[in-house]
Amino acid sequence: MRPRRRDDFAIAIICALVFEADAVEALFDETYDRLGKHYGKERGDANTYVNGRIGKHDVVLCYMPGMGKGSAAGVASSLLISYPGVRLALVVGICGGAPSPPKYQEIYLGDVIISDSTHWAGQIERSGLFSMTFARKKPAVNLKTRRNTISTAFNKQEPDAVIREPMIFFSRPAIFISIIARLLLMDAAPVLEDHEIRGREASEPYPVSIYIGPVASADTVMKSGQHRDEIASTEKVLGFEMEGAGVWDHVPCIIIKGVCDYADSHKNKVWQEYAAATGASVAKTFLEYWRPADHRDASGNYHVIIPFAKNPYFVGRQQEIQMIEDSITMPDGPRKLAITGLGGVGKTQIALEIAYCMRHRDPECSIFWIPCTSFEAVEQAFVTIAQVLGLREVQPTKVKECLRAHFSQSNKKWILIFDNADDKDMWMEIQGSSTAPRLKNIIPQSDNGRVLFTSRNRQLALKLAPSNVVSIPHVDQKAGKEILMNLLICKDLLRDDYETNTLLEMLSCLPLAISQAAAYINRNDISLATYMSLLGEQEGASIELLSEEFDDDGRYEASQHAVAATWPISFVQIQQRDKIASDFLSFMACISHREIPESILPHTESAKARVEALGLLKACSFVSAQVENSMKYGTFTSWVGTTADRLSTVFPDEDHCNRQTWRNYLPHALYLADSAEFQERQHDYDNFLARIGRCLRRDGRYAEAGSVFRNVLSTQERFCGPEHADTLASIRNLGLCLERQGNYEEAEAIHRRALLGSEKVLGPEHPHTLIRINDFGSILAHQSKYKEVETMHRRSLSGSEKVFGPEHPRTLNSMAILASMLFDQGRFVEAEELAVQLLGARKRMPGPEHPWTLTSMRNLACTWRKLGRTSDASILLKDCVDLSNKALGSHHADTAQLFNILLSWETNSKPASTDASTPPLAHTHESEMMPDSKLGGRKWRRPMNFLFQRRR
């Protein structure tokens, strides 16, 4: 997720020359903004910025107007004005190197130097000598322990290839120049006279080397080999540059620069662009592999995830805020606190104010905000937090337990804010199935952490934070008037104190109701008296329509339904003014009211009308927190069908390329599916629910997917019958979920039922039947029933060849499954025969670089190694690694796995046939190839469809 504001950037990269910055920008994984078009900058800041992402780090790239310490200091000073959150700067580019520094091996052109300290080397005197006024800058971080990790990681990436693509123009100079340089210039021997050069022995080509040590920084370019060697000897420096000391005066920095010359009189520009590229590549590698010791990333000493900006109009509540702040900061204070009060009283705004106060009060305290509007919203928030913390390999089903362990064991300060913890069932009862944990049980426990809840349900708040509940009353008249004053455009409307106080009394001084009233008054340019007359004219039925939400279990104080009295006014007016806006609001009332994608809203013929309708809802504050769950009652019940029709139309299938779309839509689809109104008519939306279940399964949420499929299956058995094709598909989907959960006995029974039903209803050679044969074989393999497994897979292969054809993707996948089974049983000769045939077919279709083809290459290499053909196996696997690096990228999990296998083979001296480093064969699971609804035999074949299929 890209940062919302400049304050969220914690890492800066500073370059003195344009081609240095170009080299860095070429290695961005994602570019957010160029030249301040989106993020802008502060007035008076003359710097030029490019914002983007390198690995998991958000960075701001800053171009310097010129070289030298003075220019660098000015750039760093302006940088901190526009980007005050920057905690670390990387000064990246080119430098001069000391060819034979003390205690180090020889440095060559293109090698990279990383500073662990900077020596300010003064200025060049008129005589051309340095004035020896050294002042050492302390290191920003300890890099010594990371030297081997960074060097190894960088060289594994084959930097020449990295530089060649995508930075073609940053190529290594021609080989004859390199040889001459190694013989003569690269030594940069001490200059005895202006034209005297001392040579050294040539060496064979080798990878770029990385050196970590002191760097000398000066105002002027070093051009004397003699003085270079003197400084290198006395100060133990590795290189010479001009910007680091100036940056270091303002922000901790690390210098990462490629060696382009030897800081002597033989300077030239031949190696500058290549050195800039090696420096940029090492900087990227540094960021991708650098992990602080306390597991925080380089974005600073804390993580902050707060979904809303600080409210500039927040007033009052100082007593409550001070009480909660004191409790949070007390060393022996309560670990859990809760804010409770009526809906609309401002609990979320108070929590928001506390979050920003704590951020200012203790910058090293991490703050994470978790919206609790639904179980799915909590799941998504936990996944985001895990990604920010660098826990990227955690399975979705394990993320809550992993985060609980992480925070419980952390020795750093943190605050978790659970906003809108209103649903008692979500916290105190098991959700979905017996495998889902209670949210109350996943709250971490640590002396360094605090947990803050906001809840309308006072009873739940008392269970979550016993004896530490802060009740929030309505604001008083003074604070209410101040809120109204801040929000109204025309301040003269408040001249009549009696009229103002009367309106505040009618609104019960609820901040939410005051905000809504002010938005309506501003939009329609009416007086307070007119607004109050509208309040009095609303019929009782309309009041009742929007009053249910405030009958919470935690309400202990009688109150007029002020918000319910406010909303009908705006809604009636919206109905009269804009039917599209009214329809949008009715639609949103049927789904989760947070993070609603615009694309999910009903289709409109006119883009202009759509924009204006949403603008009207924004003006009335109905598309933010005011869209409450209570709107699903009364009039909005009729909108459940309309909403279901729309969602069933736009909700995608489980194809990998749709993953982000379905993740955006899932909370709303699940919210709708959970409503009583939808469940009364869910038999009309079985296909929609099945898509939801398959997407949950692809995301690894097997328990939730299984619950959906059980629900769909129950409905289909009742309305369609137990042997209908859709019923059999749901049986299969349920079996796949049970298999992934390790429930093999029940999964076997379910798959057997699906297979027998398909054979009976569809026939033994129907595409669905053949797939279910493989399903059944897979579940038998989990239970080591190999004789039955082989029978099933050979039957599936024979049937697939007959129905689909010998080179159809499903036929080839059946072949791969059979080969894998033979390999597991040690029948390597038979497995080889199938693997050779399979690889040849997949090279033809879908092509030599497709992930399926790469899997087939891997499998054949593993089989050859088991047969003792180690040389052939290694050559084939090397080709596979190269193709995977080209097709998938060097950081893809499959590429990394292939590289690790190859590395283990090259370093393992055991006989190939007994080598445990050879992994089992892999294949594409049937559920990952194509949904049942898209299957077919010869007459349905669409070979082009499979060109773009990807394994999950």
UniProtKB/TrEMBL annotation:
Superkingdom of the source?
Answer: Eukaryota
Q: Which segment of the chain is annotated as a signal peptide?
A: 1-23
Gene Ontology terms, MF aspect: ADP binding; catalytic activity
Biological processes per GO annotation:
nucleoside metabolic process
Tell me the ranges covered by the Nucleoside phosphorylase domain, including all copies.
11-272
Which regions span the lipid bilayer?
none
Alphabetical UniProt keywords? Signal
Does Ribosomal protein appear among the keywords? no
Ranges for domain NB-ARC come to 318-465
Q: Where is this region: Disordered?
A: 910-936
Q: Which SUPFAM superfamilies match?
A: P-loop containing nucleoside triphosphate hydrolases (SSF52540), Purine and uridine phosphorylases (SSF53167), TPR-like (SSF48452)
Keyword Signal assigned to the entry: answer is yes
Can you say what this protein is called?
A: Kinesin light chain
Q: Which organism is it from?
A: Penicillium diatomitis
